[in-house]
Design a protein that fits this description.
- The chain is of the alpha+beta class.
- The protein has twelve helices and four strands, in the order ααβαβββααααααααα.
- It has helices at residues 2-27, 30-47, 56-69, 106-112, 116-131, 134-142, 144-153, 157-165, 168-171, 177-194, 199-208, 225-239; strands spanning 49-51, 81-87, 94-96, 101-105.
- Strands 1-2-4-3 form a four-stranded mixed beta sheet, with helices on both faces.
- A hairpin with a 4-residue loop joins strand 3 and strand 4 (101-105).
- It is globular and about 40 Å long.
């Protein structure tokens, strides 16, 4: 009896939970997702970040890079917005929040301002995370037991309230290898449609290895030979 119960729990965990997570993402109102973004930004500003020190003209250049991508982006109920933060020890990096807010660190812009294809590649990658709802999926996976019980009981209200208020949780998420590859693939197609070079994203992966100080922040964006190989394979197909 105990063995059968444990087997049933394992089966629900392994095969049922992904379905329930997808259902929970679908059920999450757009207003809650926007509140998650606001709470996460507030949490960042309280514990990790300070106002951007970039000149207004430099921020406008990065916004123009994003604007060139946006006509090729179609994500219902998401408003892609760009903001900047000075984050100590974060290195040159970026973060996408569930509602479409994309954060670029000052260090990323300062280090790669002369390489618009690289920054466009980073922006496209973060848009990929938004398009695929990766942050929400990871949030619900981190609350898997609570989520399972709430969905079975037909009451996800407390979960949505907690998500909207607990912005720090988003900052601490680590994307899976599959999510990173999905965001990369989305980015490569978006980049090619927008007229940027896909080599920019590859240059970012190569360059970021030199920044040991950003290791903790980069735990949510793990580098791998598979990701570089994915870019090279895409470029080979594009050239044919």
């Amino acid at each position: 009896m105990i063995a059968a119960t444990l087997a049933a729990i394992f089966a629900v965990w392994k095969w049922g939970l992904p379905i329930l997570v997808a259902l929970a993402v679908w059920m999450t109102p757009a207003a809650v997702v926007r509140q998650i973004d606001a709470s996460t930004l507030a949490s960042l500003d309280r514990f990790m970040a300070s106002s951007s020190q970039l000149p207004a003209a430099q921020r406008e250049v990065q916004q123009a890079l994003l604007n060139k991508l946006l006509p090729h982006v179609d994500i219902p109920d998401r408003d892609i917005r760009l903001t900047f933060r000075n984050i100590a020890n974060a290195g040159p990096n970026a973060l996408a929040l569930p509602g479409g807010t994309i954060i670029l660190t000052d260090e990323l812009v300062r280090n790669f301002a002369e390489d618009p294809d690289l920054i466009a590649g980073v922006l496209a990658h973060e848009i990929g995370h938004v398009a695929k709802n990766h942050s929400l999926k990871q949030l619900y996976h981190s609350l898997s037991i609570y989520l399972l019980i709430a969905l079975l009981a037909g009451d996800v209200g407390p979960i949505l309230d907690s998500l909207a208020l607990e912005g720090q949780t988003v900052v601490n998420l680590s994307f899976s290898r599959q999510h990173e590859l999905e965001a990369d693939s989305y980015a490569l197609h978006l980049i090619s449609k927008s007229g940027y070079s896909t080599q920019g994203l590859r240059r970012f992966f190569d360059a970021i290895k030199a920044y040991d100080g950003s290791r903790d922040w980069l735990s949510s964006h793990p580098l791998s030979r598979d990701r570089v190989r994915n870019i090279d394979s895409f470029n080979e197909r594009l050239a044919q």
